[in-house]
Amino acid sequence: MSFIDEIKELAKTKVKTIVLPEATDIRTLEATAKITKEGFAKIVLIGNKEEILKLAKEYNFDISKAEIIDSINSEKHEEYSTFLYELRKAKGMTLEQAKELVKDPVYFGMIMVKKDEADGLVSGAAHSTADTLRPALQILKTKPGTTIVSTFNLLILPHKDYGEDGVLMFADCGLNPKPNSEELSEIAISSAQSFKKLVKKEPKVAMLSYSTLGSAKSEDVEKVQEATRLAKEKAPELSIDGELQLDAAIVPKVAASKAPCSPVAGHANILVFPDLNAGNIGYKLVERLAKAEAYGPICQGIAKPVNDLSRGCKADDIVGAVAITCLQALE
User: Fold this and answer.
1) CA 46 – CA 52 distance, rounded (Å)
2) CATH, residue 196
3) Which of 54, 221, 268, 275 could form a disulfide with 249 if both were Cys (CB 3.0 to 4.6 A apart)?
4) How does pLDDT run across 242-293, given as a tens digit for each residue?
């Protein structure tokens, strides 16, 4: 059984309701047909019912088991508008602005999640990360104790040479452009916690750099060194080490040469990148060149499960993201 199939089986133990607000995107409809057929999640599509059904029929997608809600003509429009206004009026939002925003499928879906009428939301196939996460942070807020919201991607390699039987987590690949040492340490700790919940294995976190344990010196290297120190200080129970070059982090032979005393080197299953440039480029290289399955960006630190998609995603990527969102909702 594949990694994502295991997640789906866990999701079936207590089926959750997930909102897909990009209901006129063909990939969303294809994913909905697959998800509802497999039965690991209930799906709510947000959009014009007539248009959605017409598209589904045109492409022969069976979405009969999904619920469809029109955010513009919903009977809950007034209720949701008032709810959003009360939530955001201290920030200057007017009732008129709230009424307009509630027409937006993403905002409508977020309010459903906030009011416990759904368990999570997946968007991003046709929206930017900002357009998905802005309403999430405005409406759902962050988890108590969270200092930074971040993202990770799960990469499932077609072979099992690296990571946890071929499963690797990359962070942060979708949200924070230039995290400082404090932020990087929080990303590392959050990623370790997410890995343990989703993969059910012990996390081994490599703080990546172009330097291995002092082999080079620069401000960039010092940032990762300080982040590693802070992460170890905050979470001494976790296996976190750095700074490490990528080959030293995942290849045992290279680790034996470059970092022989490291408890993580050669066996890392979580790769924390020093900035968004490196993380985003890195995961897309592995996805395309190694033909890995890529799921994410998956968000961590938001009060309820909300996950982003790459605009280049496939229907099966949406299926996987929904399965992971279900598991987060179970947790």
Assistant:
1) 9
2) 3.40.50.10750
3) 268
4) 999 999 999 999 999 999 999 999 999 999 999 999 999 999 999 999 999 8
Tokens found for residue 29: 């409809």
DSSP E strands: which ranges in 109-195?
Answer: 120-123, 150-156, 167-171
First to last CA, the chain: 22
Token pair, residue 94, equals: 């007017």
With respect to residue 228, please indicate whether it lies within any of the assigned structural domains: yes
78, 106, 191 from 148: Cα distances, Å: 33, 22, 12
- Counted residue by residue, the chain has a size of 331
Domain count, the chain: 2
Q: What is the pLDDT of residues 164-201, one digit of tens each?
A: 999 999 999 988 999 999 999 999 999 999 999 899 99
Residues 256 and 166 in one domain: yes
Paired tokens of 326:
């279900």
In a domain, 296, yes or no: no
Among all chains, which residue has been given the structure tokens 């290279």?
A: 254
Residue 324 confidence (pLDDT): 94
Considering the domain boundaries, does residue 297 fall inside one?
no
Peptide bond into 243 cis (omega under 30): yes
Residue 13, domain extent: 3-141+302-330
